[in-house]
Design goal:
heterodimer; A: Rna Polymerase Sigma Factor, Chain: A; 2 domains; globular; B: alpha+beta; 5 helices
Chain lengths: 187, 200
């Protein structure tokens, strides 16, 4: 019975972010937002940090959550909460980059402050990973991060307002670059 | 040839595992600053305290108004047959509408303000409540029995929709006491669990 199945989702221990957000929208009780923040804030911050710089990531993270509070009534249950959250965060980030006239520059190019070249052999895996990641073009980097955060191709398309082929292509290029950089580390 | 391909795939798989591990490690090392958390949660608390919670701050002096408004709701109540079906033809008489103005009022609200708020805010939680007992859960849906022995049936489809929208308690068992909260439009806003036994 379908209702029995849906009741299973309501059992204790299976509280979803979507349920928390709906409760927050209905009640405006801060306890629901606190749980959402605890569940998702680090993921969002890491995404924004990877796409920008610490100060900007911090600012955009804060502004994203304030938008969640202000726009709680606009939340639609038909998508994932994290999809909605990342969409807001990405839009705010790109708006900010546009204000700073950095968006065109970043759209297909790499971050100006991450121009380090990879030297083989003498670097740790983490440093190579960081370096390669930061050198990926903006759109490849965001596709890779979103994928790592568990978003499906369609969700990434929605968050980034891109088509499926473009997202798949960005993911392929990003993964290949990282494989190339880290390939030397396995036995 | 086949072996080379297998080896390549294995190497790719190992590298992907390294990438995943490095990604998780990087996330651990870069967590959201505490001050962002403090600020965001403080703002949420501020918003919460500012919110006029309809059910909690209903002014005593507005009880008369509530009766008037609820009378309108009672007359126009529109639990449509597609939403709620019943084995009993007397279902739509809704004998058990139970007006329960809250106590512990914090401030007076002028009639016009209240009426405007009532009309404008779709987020108003509920203005009417029906007490009921969950009689059964089966393929047809949730069957409930009110104090007046009226039978309400929340169809399987509606119950599932409500569950998806967090409008049902997380756990429901046969025999549970529930409260059906109805909006100003007579639609079911939420079904709540109630600890107290059904008082008729």
């Amino acid at each position: 019975m379908s209702f029995v199945l849906s009741l299973k989702n309501l059992l204790p221990g299976t509280v979803t972010n979507e349920w928390l957000m709906t409760q927050y929208r209905l009640s405006q009780e801060a306890k629901y937002l606190t749980q959402l923040y605890n569940n998702c804030a680090n993921d969002l911050y890491h995404f924004l940090l990877t796409m920008s710089a610490p100060a900007l990531a911090e600012d955009i993270t804060q502004r994203t959550w304030l938008k969640v509070i202000d726009n709680r009534n606009k939340y639609q249950v038909d998508g994932t909460f994290t999809g909605w959250l990342f969409t807001i965060g990405r839009r705010l980030l790109i708006d900010e980059l546009r204000k700073q006239n950095r968006w065109v520059e970043l759209e297909e190019a790499t971050l100006a402050d991450a121009q380090t070249t990879i030297e083989s052999g003498n670097r740790s895996l983490m440093r190579d990973f960081d370096s390669t990641l930061s050198q990926l073009p903006f759109l490849q980097r965001e596709a890779f991060i979103l994928r790592q955060e568990g978003f499906g191709i369609q969700e990434i398309c929605h968050i980034t307002s891109s088509n499926t082929e473009a997202v798949k292509s960005r993911l392929r290029y990003a993964k290949n670059s990282l494989r190339q950089a880290l390939g030397k580390y396995h036995d | 040839m086949h072996t080379n391909s297998d080896e390549t795939n294995q190497m790719t798989e190992q590298t992907d595992q390294l990438i995943d591990a490095a990604y998780q490690q990087r996330k651990k090392q870069n967590q959201a600053p505490r001050k962002v958390r403090s600020h965001v949660l403080a703002m949420a608390a501020k918003k919460e305290s500012k919110t006029v919670r309809f059910s909690l701050h209903w002014p005593l002096s507005a009880a008369v108004l509530s009766v008037a408004v609820l009378s309108l709701v009672y007359m126009q109540i529109s639990i449509s047959p597609s939403q709620v079906q019943s084995n009993s033809p007397t279902l739509l008489t809704l004998h058990t509408i139970n007006i329960q103005p809250e106590v512990g009022y914090s401030k007076q609200v002028e009639y016009n303000d209240l009426l405007a708020s009532f009309q404008e805010k779709e987020s108003i939680y509920a203005v009417t409540q029906i007490s009921a007992r969950l009689a059964s859960i089966d393929d047809t849906g949730l069957a409930m029995e009110t104090c007046d022995s009226q039978n309400l049936l929340i169809t399987d489809e509606l119950a599932e929709l409500m569950a998806q929208n967090a409008m049902l308690p997380r756990e429901l068992n046969v025999g549970d006491q529930v409260m059906l909260a109805l909006s100003a439009r007579g639609q079911i806003v939420e079904i709540l669990s109630v600890d107290k036994p059904l008082q008729c």
